[in-house]
Amino acid sequence: MIKNYLKTTLRGFWKNKMFTLINVIGLSVGIAASLVIYLIVHFDFSFDRFHRDENRIYRVVTNFTTPGSQTCNAGICGAAIDVVKRQLTGVETAAQIFTLYQPNVSTQTTNANQAVFKAQDNVILADDSYFRLFSYHWLAGSSAGALSRPNQVVLMASQAKKYFPSLTYDQMIGRKVLYDTLITTVSGIVADIKENTDLTFHDFISFSTVETTPALKARVVVNNWNGTSPEQQLFIKLAMPTVVTRLTKQLNTAFKKTLPATSASKNDAPSFYFQPLADMHFNANYGTFGNGRTADKTTLYELLAIALFLLTLGCINFINLTTAQSVRHAKEIGIRKTMGSSRGQLMAQFMTETLLTTFAALVIAFVTAPLLLHEFAAFIPAGITANMIWQPAILAFLLLLAIAVALAAGFYPAMILSSFDPVSVLKGQSQSDSSNTRNTRLRKTLSVTQFVIAQFFIMATVLVSKQIYYALNKDLGFRKEAVLIINSPWKNRQPGLNHIFMNKLRTMPQVVQVSAGRDAPLSNDPHTASAIYRDDKKEIKVDKIAEKFGDENYINVYHIQLLAGRNLEARDTVNTVLINQKLATLLGFKNPKQAVGKSLSGFNGQPQTQIIGVMADFQQESIHAPIMPLVLFTSTNPYFNGTFHIALKPRTGDGENWKSAIAAMQDAWKQIYPDDDFDYRFFDESIAKIYTSEQNTSKLLSWATALSVLISCLGLLGLTVYTTNQRKKEIGVRKVLGASVTQVVRLLSTELVSLILISFVIATPLAWLAMNKWIQNFADRTTVSWWIFVLSGVGMLLVGLLTSAAQTVRAALINPVRSLKSE
């Protein structure tokens, strides 16, 4: 029986090669896209799920609330850590960590030579609870006492092999590792984590080292009440997840009670939140470690929706073409039923056809998925590779997906085809019964659904592209071209050396101007402060003022307009500042000149800070965020004036002047900072990177649009071929009666145009609602223009007409004698 099913199916495929090809391509596109999307979604949702009792592990994070805003911080102050460890009941384990900023590491090798590894990341201080909380496999040593004493270090296997390449893991125990000036002894080796994790640490220094090391003790203030920083974090395991609400309330209450009397108002105290470990990978408010990647659940769900849409389009094609070709199967079904075939056997035959079609599509999808992964390499997380397709879980997903698609695409056509009455079909009446009428309505409905999805994607793609173009080309209030940014060494930041380097930069012929400061005008690393303005009539407090640090050349390098007052000068101190127009307005000044000479109280702890000038507003972060009130001033802190902002002369045609400038800067750098790597970036490239997420979204939508239009047009082509074949005698009669080619083409295209117009009416309000919701994420945004919808509708109409044109024109040109000769 099965052999007969296969022979019949393969014979049908060969006889109807075009329809088979359309079905296979449509389904393969949907399956390939679904496979790639499943890899992304499965990858992101698997982070840190391998730890024992991961549902009971939380990170304690901090929220700072001010009127109108809330600031989130992944860190926690030392005093709150003490409250968690000593006062909270229901905490099974608490592990405190502190991240060290890129220490230089040196080790003593077996041949008495010293190996040096510069700026190592992912080095932390951790107490002995860390390895009880998280799951690691020990290769040497044990979790029992590896971090119980000062100056111990546990290494991850890959890092250990980098430090001691010729030693076994057991031989590494007791070896010395120097972190800057801190001498540690290796007490354990743990295996690299093969699963997906945001805990990317590979050097674990015992936390008790802080008590014996003055330099660390100055940085890690164990009992501090403020100074919350992401460097210091706390992870806990609860006895049971249900107590999290009670413990959160208990911690916040206990912390407020322990605040010293000299602290700020208890109403302004920070609040603490227990963040589930599973949420850490998805919550950008708190982030992960070392600027690690966080995923967006909304984006993942949108990807799943796209996969579902593309699969739906492929299934619609299959249903449409199969039901449209019901006449081809009618006599076969009638004969089979007359010979004794049951309806179940007929359904099995048609489901076999569907399964083979789906299997062919699955093979094509399996082959093309690596190509899609390569095309979306910039969008797909770095950990996803084509080799992951061979994982058992992925293969199981593909098998289940193929079965689901086969059922979705094939069950309804199998039901319809197997229900034909043998007497009617053998009399040639299968086309006129009620079932066929229902099939026609179904095909039209499904075709409209296809065009709705395709037009929705087109409209969304046009709007996203329009918003990205707006973001990258709008006037941000400053110069962004031909500006080079160089950071002086963080650990070797000395004002004297910086001054020498700046003087060398100024002598270079390609350099127009140089400024020393910190962040560029637009960056995603904001510093904020608060201040009060008082006059005889009122007191105005501004809680969140953005800070920028720069010298007297800062606004000149970036061409920031000075509206009133004077610029900063070399003799100015932290007590003299420039403010932007937004802050001047908030302080009650209608004219920028009125703010010049006035003073702010409490800014950065200063009794009085004089306003010497007012700048025009400029964008400080991406246009997702509104322009904030801002001050610009020169700081005496070397870490706030160690970034060089260099305005270059316009680039020559071959770019040689910029190349020679960068080469000269590198030479000067090596003379002044011989032990530090030279690194630079162009400001306009940094701005473009800020909108990487939107650009990836645009690329994804473009592909989804192209694939949805491709699948829809394939289905349209198949239906057009079928329709013209069914109506060829009608066309012949019309031509004999005098119909022109144009009239015949118009007749055949009328139904297509009506279906596209109906889909346009349905898709437009859906797209408008979705796009308005998406664009609300931008404080500064483009408009949802009417022409986006018209362009999309006209574009879909033209694509549809061009797709069907070859078949309709061919049918209109055929000699009526050929189509009527059998009558």
Strand content: 15-25%
State the low-pLDDT regions, or none.
430-436
The overall pLDDT, averaged over residues, is: 82
* Helix residue percentage: 40-55%
Structural class: alpha+beta
C-alpha termini separation: 39 Å
* Total number of beta strands: 24
How many structural domains are formed by the residues? Answer: 3
**Radius of gyration of CA atoms, rounded to a whole number:** 35 Å
Secondary structure tally, helices? 26
Give the overall shape, derived from the CA principal axes.
globular
Write up what this structure looks like:
With 823 residues, the chain is an alpha+beta fold. It folds into three domains: 2-40 and 296-469 and 692-820, no CATH class; 54-279, no CATH class; 483-690, no CATH class. It is 49% helix and 17% strand. The longest helix has 40 residues, at 434-473. The chain crosses the membrane at residues 21-41, 303-325, 346-369, 389-412, 451-472, 700-723, 744-766, 786-813. Its main location: membrane. Residues 20-252, 507-665 form the MacB-like periplasmic core domain.
Task: Summarize the helices and strands and which ones pair or pack.
Elements: H1 2-15, H2 17-44, E1 57-66, E2 69-73, H3 78-87, E3 91-100, E4 105-108, E5 114-117, E6 123-126, H4 130-133, E7 138-140, E8 152-156, H5 157-163, H6 169-172, E9 176-179, E10 182-190, E11 203-206, H7 209-212, H8 214-219, E12 232-238, H9 244-258, E13 271-276, H10 297-324, H11 326-338, H12 343-375, H13 392-418, H14 422-426, H15 434-473, E14 483-487, H16 495-506, E15 511-517, E16 527-534, E17 539-549, H17 554-557, E18 562-565, E19 576-580, H18 581-586, H19 592-595, E20 599-600, E21 609-615, E22 630-633, E23 643-648, H20 656-672, E24 681-682, H21 683-690, H22 692-726, H23 728-736, H24 741-775, H25 786-813, H26 816-820
Helix pairs in contact: 1-12, 2-10, 2-12, 2-13, 2-22, 10-13, 10-15, 10-22, 12-13, 15-22, 15-24, 15-25, 16-20, 22-25, 24-25
